[in-house]
Amino acid sequence: MTAANHVKRDADFIFHELTRSICPECKAVIDAQVIIRDNKVYMRKRCPQHGWFEGIISSDAEMYVGSVRFNKPGTIPLDFSTEVENGCPLDCGLCPEHKQHICLALIEVNTACNLDCPVCFADAGIGYNLTLEQVESMLDRFVEIEGDPEVVQFSGGEPTIHPQLPQMIQAAKDRGIRQVMINTNGVRLARDDRFLAQMAALDPVVYFQFDGLREETYLTIRGEPLLDTKMRALDRLADAGMTAVLVAAIERDVNTDEVGAIVEFGLQHPAVRGVVFQPVTHVGRHIEFDPMTRVTIPDIIHGIVDQTAGRFVLEDFVPVPCCFPTCQVNSYLFVNGDTVMPLPRLLEIDQYLDYITNRALPKPPNAADIQTALEGLWSASAVAGAEKTASQFECACGPGLDLPYEVNHLKEHIFQIAIKDFLDAWTFNVKQVMKCCVAILIPDGRAIPFCAYNSVGYREQIRDQLTLEQGRQIRSRSH
Amino acid sequence: MLSTYAAKICCADLYSSELARLILGDSLHPGGLRATNRLGRAMGLQPGWHVLDLACGIGTSATALSRVFRCHVTGLELGAVAAENSRQRALEQSVPANVAFVRGDAEMPPFRSGAFDAVIIECATSLFADKPSAIREVRRLLRPGGVIGLSDVTVEPGSLPPELDSTVGMMLCLTDALPAGGYQTLLESAGFKVVERTDLSGEVLSLLAEVRGKLNLRHTLGQTAPGVADDLTSIAPDLLERVENLVQRGQIGYWHYVGRNKPVL
Fold first, then answer.
1. Contact at 8 Å (CB) between B78 and B86?
2. I need a labelling partner for B245 at 20 to 30 A (CA). Which of A314, A400, A411, B251 fits?
3. Which positions in chain A touch B233 (Cβ < 8 Å)?
4. pLDDT digit string (tens) for A329-378?
5. Contacts of A375 in chain B (CB under 8 A)
6. DSSP sequence for A26-86
7. Hey, what domains does chain B have and what are their CATH numbers?
8. What is the tens place of the pLDDT at every residue in B178-192?
9. What is the DSSP string of A379-439?
10. Is the predicted pLDDT of residue A286 greater than 60, yes or no?
11. A294 near A288, Cβ under 8 Å?
C-alpha cells in the first residue's frame, strides 16, 4: 500500500440535492441524487432491481441553480380529481398536493397520424378517436377546475386528421377559453384547401412542428423528406392570415447546429410569431441516445447565441416562473423591420415577469386577444381626459376613429422564443412534476401533468382503456 | 342633450364600433364568455329551452350559449351595425339553426308574452332609460317559473370620479349603473325571486392587472420604437389605479343575479 491511499480525497462532485425519480427500466419510483460535476448537473439514482443510472440534466450548473429565484408561488386550482394515496407521481391528477394550476391543457383527440416518425413521444399509431361529446365534457371539466382557463391545445396523434377538429376548436372558444391551439405536423395544412379555410375561419394558433432547414434533419427525425411540405404549409398559413409557432425537436448530432437558423427563419416568415425548442424526450419512439450527453436547455441557449452572429446574449433567456423554473426559459423580442430587441434588455424584468411569462404562449396576434383583455377598456377611460377624443365619441359614436398604431399592431412586433425540456425516465424529477403547469386532459375528468403522463405509464394505461372502450362501442353499434 | 331614443341609438352603435370591441372584447363585458357561461350554469339553462339575449351586442354570447347549452337563442339588438355583424358572424361561424337575431329596442321587446324559458341581460340593464319598466317587460316575456339572468357593473352612490362621469363612463356602463343592492331590488320589484347573486368583481381586477401589464409593456416599447406614439399610454395607468382602488374598496363592482319568475297569485 502506498501513502497516497491513506490521504483523504474530495469527491469530484458537489451533492446538490436528494429528490425522487423513476427507474428507466421498470418505472419504479426511486430516490435520486442531483449532483454537480464540472459545472454540469447530473441525476444519479439506483433501482434495487436494475442498479445504478446516471444522466445529464443541465449542461450549465450556474444557470440551473440560478433559475431557482424565478420560482413563484403556484395558484391552487378550484377542484382536484384524485386523492393523495400513493404519493407523487402515482396519484395524478391533479391531486390536492399538486403545487400549480394548469396553464396549458392538452387534449389528444386521436392516436393516428399521417406520418410515421422514428421520433414520437406520443408513439402515434393505432388506438382511439375521441368524440366531440367527450371533448366537450373534458372542456367543461377544465373550466370547472380552472374557472378562467388560459390555453387549450389540440394534439394527437395528428389532430388535423380528426373529422371533428373544427367543432372541437369551436367548442373550446364557446367556453371562453382564452387561446386555442392546434399541434400539427402541417401536412394537411399544406395540401387541403378546404381544411385550411376552415382553420382560417376559427383562427387557432398553429403549433407547427419544424425541426430545421435541412432535409437530412427531417429524414432522421421524421423518416421522410418534409422540408417542402413544411414551407408550403407555412406560406399558406401566412396567406390565410394565420399565426404559427415553430416547434423544433432538437437531438444531439442531428440539428443542434440549426437552432440559430430556425430562429432567423422564424423572424423572417410572416406567419411565424415564435419558436419553441424542445430537446428530444426519450419516451415513446426515439432514436438511440447517450443519457450523459443528451441536449439540455443551456445547450440550446448557447447554440442560439453562437449561431446568430451577436443578436443574443445568454441573459436574454429568462426562466419561466409558473412551472418549476428549471423546466423552461423564454425570451421575447420586439421586432421592427431589421431591429430585433430582446425584451430582457428593455425591461426591469422582475417587474414584468408575471405578465410576460405566467402564460404558456405569446399573446396571439389576433384582435380577439387584445379585445378580451380589458386593455382598451381603461385606455378608453383615459380618453375621457382627452377632450378631442371624447368629442369624437359623442358625435361619431363609432366608425372613423383612428386607432393608435400600437394598439392595432403591437402584436405583430412581438416574437417569442421558448425552450422547454420535457422530462423522460432519465431526467424525471418529482419536484418538477409536482409544480408542472402543462396537463393532458382525460375523458374521465382527470388532468395529468404532461411529463408524468409520458414517463410513468399513464399514457399506455389510458390509451389501452380508451381503445378498448371505443372497440366495445363500435361492436355494440354494429350488432 | 340627446333625446332618449337618439341616445339609445348612439349608444347601441357605439357598442358595435370596432373600438368598443377592442376595448371590451367580443363579448362586450368583463369576464367574456367565461362569465357568460357561468351565468348560464347558474340559471340552469336546459337543452331545447328558448332563451332571449337582450341587447345582445354582436351576438357573441348568444351563439356560444346556443352551442354550449344547446338552447334556441334569440338575440335582440338595437344597433344596426351590431345586428348586421351578428348575422355576418353567425354565417361565418356556420352557427346552427337555433340562433336568430332581431333588431329592436330591448326596453320594448317585440315578442309575445311567455315566449321564453329564460332571458339573459349582460351589461345592458344599466343603460336602460326606464329600468323598472324594462325588467317588468322581461317578466312578461317569461313563462311562469322562467329564469332571468342579469349581470352588470355596480357603482355605489357618489363614488364615481368626474373623469368617468362622461360619455366614456356611459360606455363602460358606469354613469347609470346601480349599486349592487339596486339590481336585486329592481328584480324583486318586478316580481322575481332572486335565487342567486354573485360578486364577480374579481374578474374586473384580474383583467385590470392584465391591462396594466400591457400598458407597461407598451409604454416601454413606445420609448424605444420611433413613430410609436400613443398618448393614451401616459394617462391610462393613473386612471387604471384609481379604478382599481374603487373596485378594491367595493365602490365599483361586477355582479350577476339569477331571478325566478314567481307565478302571479
1. no
2. A411
3. 379, 406
4. 888 787 877 778 887 776 556 555 533 344 444 443 333 333 232 222 21
5. 22-23, 210-211, 214-215
6. T--EEEEEEEEETTEEEEEEEETTTEEEEEEEES-HHHHHHGGGG-------S--SS--SS
7. 4-201+250-261 (3.40.50.150), 205-238 (no CATH)
8. 999 999 999 999 999
9. HHHHHTT-HHHHHHHHHH-STTPPPPHHHHHGGGGEEEEEEE----TTT--HHHHHT--EE
10. yes
11. no
The Cα B130–Cα A67 span in angstroms is 59
Residue type, A109: V
Contact map slice: A 33-92 vs B, CB within 8 A:
none
Name the phi and psi angles at A129, rounded to 5: -120, 125
Cα angle B45, B51, B57 (rounded to 5 degrees) comes to 115
CB contact under 8 Å between B34 and A390, yes or no, is no
- Distance of alpha carbon A450 from alpha carbon A459, whole angstroms: 10
- Strand pairing class (A104-108; A438-441): parallel
Distance from C-alpha of B225 to C-alpha of B157, rounded to nearest angstrom? 43
Nearest CA to B69 among A117, A174, A337, A340?
Answer: A174
Paired with B120 in beta bridges are B53, B149
- CB-based burial of residue B155 (10 Å sphere; 0-12 exposed, 13-18 middle, 19+ buried)? buried
Closest to B148 measured CA to CA, from B62, B243, B258, B244: B258
In the predicted model, is pLDDT for residue B62 greater than 80?
A: yes
A41 grid coordinates: 448537473
Contacts of A377 in chain B (CB under 8 A): 23-24, 172, 207, 211
Beta-carbon count within 10 A of A331 CB: 25
Residues 6 or more apart whose Cβ sits within 8 Å of residue A234: A186, A208, A210, A244, A269, A271, A272
Here the cell at position A117 is 416518425
- Residue B6 in contact with partner chain A when CB distance is under 8 A: no
pLDDT of the residue at A4: 63
- Res. B220: pLDDT tops 90: no
C-alpha cell at A235: 406560406
How do residues A228-276 score in pLDDT, each as one tens digit? 999 999 999 999 999 899 999 999 999 999 999 999 999 999 999 889 9
- What distance in Å separates the CA atoms of residue A267 and residue A340, rounded to the nearest whole number? 9
d(CA A182, nearest CA chain B) in Å: 18
User: Taking CB atoms and an 8 Å limit, are A393 and B14 in contact across chains?
Assistant: yes
Give me the count of residues in chain B: 265
Q: What angle do CA A50, A54, A57 make, to 5 degrees?
A: 135
pLDDT score of B138? 96
pTM for this predicted structure: 0.81
CA–centroid distance for B220 within its chain: 33
For residues A247 and A319, give the distance between their C-alpha atoms in angstroms, rounded to a whole number. 18
Task: Tell me how far apart the alpha carbons of residues B93 and A53 are, in angstroms, rounded to a whole number.
Answer: 54
In this structure, what C-alpha cell is assigned to residue A171? 367548442
pLDDT winner (highest mean) among A127-131, A468-472, B205-209, B245-249: A127-131
Q: What is the pLDDT of residues A137-159, one digit of tens each?
A: 999 999 999 887 878 999 999 99
> Domain map of chain A by residue range?
13-66, 75-363+410-466
Cα→Cα distances A219→A102, A116, A214, A223, A262, Å: 35, 11, 9, 4, 17
Cα(A147)–Cα(B41) distance, rounded to whole angstroms? 13
- Give me the residues paired with residue B199 across strands: B255
User: How many helices (H) does chain B have, and how many strands (E)?
Assistant: 10, 7
pLDDT at position B215 is 57
Peptide bond into A93 cis (omega under 30): yes
At B103-154, the pLDDT tens digits run: 899 999 999 999 999 999 998 898 888 999 999 999 999 999 999 999 998 9
* A198–chain B nearest CA distance, Å: 9
Superfamily of domain A75-363+410-466: Aldolase class I (3.20.20.70)
- The answer to whether the CB atoms of B33 and A175 lie below 8 A apart is yes
